[in-house]
């Protein structure tokens, strides 16, 4: 397996607790990377020649501003393309947004800012607009992440007919708990493939503050504080790993069947069934289905 990008979950903590969050981001979460850990991750990333980009996300990475800034600086110095994903809470005015972003000029290639009705009262928030203005002035590329409401992609409104510029909900984590009941869903046996992740050759993976390398959030394929990225990639076999193997064979439905689980009738999407099955299987596969933070256990 050859990786091209690492997405560092700098922290599980967030100043918001959005209903659609598939990571259970919250002010009450725990787990934040230290500078020494970021150093180690970047060192290993350099050893894995194919990695070109390093993104910082969370949680909300701007909550740990000096660490975020130093992390981006280090990554840029080592020649990586750099990015951040943020909810933009800090962009309270244009003037302030400029000051928050100014230290990132020249070292940050792109920033993605969330703006939708989960984060703010309007789809394009004032914060997002302020951040956009500031980024433009500093020559940083900025994009928005906007997630639709459950009803926007339901059977009634036409599945796949999302409003322009919006992405659908992934019913995992808090989204599964809070939003799945708002859509009718499909019979569980119909979810016979993973719709989002390339489980054999993912390209990019997420690394969390505990060192877990996630192929999808909550499915760990190794811990890079124990085994190097190179070694994890050399030994990973998606078809024989118990969780990814089942998902590749027949999606979340196969994961349930292989493990003799008894799902309910309908699920909002494949991730909803996958999330439920993995919760059930955590005691059996505690090293893979980790950490507690991603399963709302905090
Ligand atoms: S089906 Fe499972 S592995 Fe695939 S994207 Fe959804 S939650 Fe992740």
How do the helices and strands line up, and which of them pair or pack?
Blueprint (H helix, E strand, L loop, with lengths): L4 E5 L25 H13 L5 E5 L7 H13 L3 E6 L7 H8 L8 E5 L11 H13 L2 E5 L28 H5 L7 E2 L16 E4 L4 E5 L2 E5 L5 H7 L6 H17 L7 E2 L2 H12 L17
This protein binds iron/sulfur cluster (SF4).
Strand count, sense and barrel status of the largest sheet are:
8 strands, mixed
Which stretches are poorly predicted, pLDDT < 50 over at least 5 residues?
Answer: none
CATH topology of the domain at 5-86 and 148-183 and 196-236: TIM Barrel
Distance between the termini: 32 Å
Q: What's the architecture of the domain at 5-86 and 148-183 and 196-236, going by CATH?
A: Alpha-Beta Barrel
Q: What is the overall silhouette?
A: globular
Q: CATH homologous superfamily of the domain at 5-86 and 148-183 and 196-236 - what is it?
A: Aldolase class I
* Hetero compounds: iron/sulfur cluster
User: What is the CATH domain class of the domain at 5-86 and 148-183 and 196-236?
Assistant: Alpha Beta
């Amino acid at each position: 397996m050859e990786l091209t990008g690492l997405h560092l979950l700098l922290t599980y903590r967030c100043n918001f607790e959005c209903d659609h969050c598939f990571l259970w981001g919250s002010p009450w979460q725990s787990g934040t990377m230290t500078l020494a850990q970021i150093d180690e991750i970047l060192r290993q990333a350099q050893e894995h020649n194919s990695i070109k980009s390093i993104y910082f996300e969370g949680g909300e990475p701007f909550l740990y501003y000096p660490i975020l800034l130093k992390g981006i600086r280090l990554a840029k110095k080592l020649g990586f393309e750099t990015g951040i994903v943020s909810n933009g809470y800090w962009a309270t005015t244009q003037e302030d947004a400029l000051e928050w972003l100014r230290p990132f000029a020249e070292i940050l290639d792109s920033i993605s800012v969330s703006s939708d009705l989960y984060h703010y009262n309007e789809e394009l928030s004032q914060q997002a607009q302020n951040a956009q203005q500031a980024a433009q002035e500093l020559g940083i590329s900025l994009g928005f992440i906007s997630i639709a409401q459950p009803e926007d992609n339901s059977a009634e409104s036409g599945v796949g007919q999302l409003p322009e510029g919006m992405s659908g909900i992934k019913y995992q984590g808090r989204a599964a708990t809070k939003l799945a009941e708002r859509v009718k869903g499909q019979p569980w046996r119909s979810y016979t493939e993973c719709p989002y992740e390339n489980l054999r050759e993912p390209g990019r993976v997420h690394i969390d503050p505990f060192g877990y390398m996630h192929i999808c959030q909550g499915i760990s394929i190794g811990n890079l504080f124990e085994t190097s990225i190179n070694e994890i990639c050399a030994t990973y076999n998606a078809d024989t790993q118990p969780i990814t193997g089942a998902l590749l064979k027949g999606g979340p439905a196969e994961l349930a069947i292989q493990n003799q689980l008894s799902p309910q009738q309908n699920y909002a999407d494949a991730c909803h069934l996958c999330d439920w099955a993995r919760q059930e299987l955590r005691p059996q596969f505690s090293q893979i289905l980790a950490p507690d933070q991603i399963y709302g256990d905090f």
